[in-house]
Amino acid sequence: MSENMLEDMNELMLQRREKLSQLREEREKAFADKYEVTYHAAEVESNFEELEEKEVKLAGRLMAIRTHGKASFADLMDMSGKVQLYVKQNNIGEDRYEFFQDLDLGDLVGITGTVFKTNRGQVSIRVSSFELLTKSLRPLPEKFHGLKDKDIRYRQRYLDLIVNPDVKETFVIRSKIIKEMRRYLENKGFLEVETPMMHPIAGGATARPFVTHHNTLDMDLYLRIAPELYLKKLIVGGFEKVFEINRNFRNEGMSYKHNPEFTTMELYQAQADYHDMMELTENLVSHLAEEVLETKTLEYEGTELDFTAPWDRITMVEAVKKYADVDFSEFDTAEKAYEAAASVGVKPEEGLSYGEVLNEVFEIRVEDKLIQPTFIMDYPIEVSPLAQKIEDDPRFTYRFEAFVYGREIANAFSELNDPEEQKRRFEKQVEMREAGDEEAQMMDYDFIRALEYGMPPTGGLGIGIDRLIMLLTDSSSIRDVILFPTMRPESNE
């Protein structure tokens, strides 16, 4: 913000504080307790024939004031939208009209009046009385420039919501999507549960955790990176279908599709496999699009996306052959994998296995080409420590990820339920961790113990809700769909 703009801002704030002082001197309330509301702005508009010339009471924020001598028009905004006010000196008295003229944009008021249409046909409210509910001490952004600075918008979301109505609509849609997701899963027989947010062991995903400390127990705990292991313990305990919608926390890099805390839906179903999870995923997402947005075909950043089930299915090896023009099925050694990666301009770090190199080639050369909803199946065992291996080819697992517009939105397995094999996989992860991989998983002996009691064949699925909502609302950044995204602290200046 320029020096001149700062001076103007400071001057406007000073003027508003002077008005506040004057109100207090005159014993006028500047911060009211309550106001009875009978209608919202959108209801007045949509129910005009029923409400014409009837009294209504609304409360909201003044977003525009246009004075014409002894009469003024104003825009009142509430949660539902805007409605025009008609304020006339003859209707409210000279003193109150002068008071109204002295109000500022952003002030919160309660009004009583009758509904009518202007000569131009605009539904309006003829104000008979009003109250100042809250004095706004900071000016709103200038009308024609608005609030466009993304850093300010994300940091001061309250201001963003006031001056950018489409932002509010995005979060209304977000709420409807999550509500409908819950309803859909409950109708399918899933039970919603809650599992711990602080874990003694960081498990269930490959990620670097946040660490906190419990004073009474004198022990470090990890903010959860995934609820997976706890949810699978519930399957061991006899629940057959469970799901959880909640936050995960990962101490990783930030980008337009990564925020350190994010929302996921994770579910587990006994007597199911990853094919069942594919069917559930495509049907759930297409249902959400149709039910909430009334269409299965949406536009995202100018590209039309069709969420209609069924979605394309292709293995990782097939996808690398199709999009990167290199066939990993023709060899199975790490040496050959490195040669294949180099042939398409990918240079993995030293010491990786065949499967890890394949996965890196896929991430670099294939992911961004997966535009329409697509399931990538059969991931290497090295990057899937919790998934059931494919018996005919133990290099790979019954795992898939769902991609849309080059972004992963879902991850699912036929869950590994062999406790001895799971222990070996954990031991391999521990070796990787001791070698310096901070994202490798830890040994979880309690989870092994749970599997030793017997977990039925199980399908598991996780969906990144923030990324899904980005796609369904045509939002370019994950920060656009998180009300208060993680930000650096403001500078002292």
**Number of strand elements:** 18
So, CATH architecture of the largest domain? 2-Layer Sandwich
User: Which CATH class of the largest domain applies here?
Assistant: Alpha Beta
Determine the structural class based on helices, strands and strand pairing.
alpha+beta
Main β-sheet: number of strands, strand sense, barrel status?
Answer: 8 strands, mixed
Please give the share of residues in helix: 25-40%
Could you name the CATH homologous superfamily of the largest domain? Bira Bifunctional Protein, Domain 2
Q: How many individual helices?
A: 16
Radius of gyration, rounded?
Answer: 29 Å
Distance between the termini: 11 Å
Can you give the mean pLDDT?
95
Low-confidence stretches: none
Read across the widest sheet, the strand sequence of neighbours is 6-10-11-18-17-16-15-14
Please tell me what the overall shape is: elongated
**How many domains make up the coordinates?**
2
CATH topology of the largest domain: BirA Bifunctional Protein, domain 2
| Percentage of residues in strands | 15-25%
Subcellular location: Cytoplasm
Main location: cytoplasm
Keywords: Aminoacyl-tRNA synthetase, ATP-binding, Coiled coil, Cytoplasm, Ligase, Magnesium, Metal-binding, Nucleotide-binding, Protein biosynthesis
Cofactor: Mg(2+)
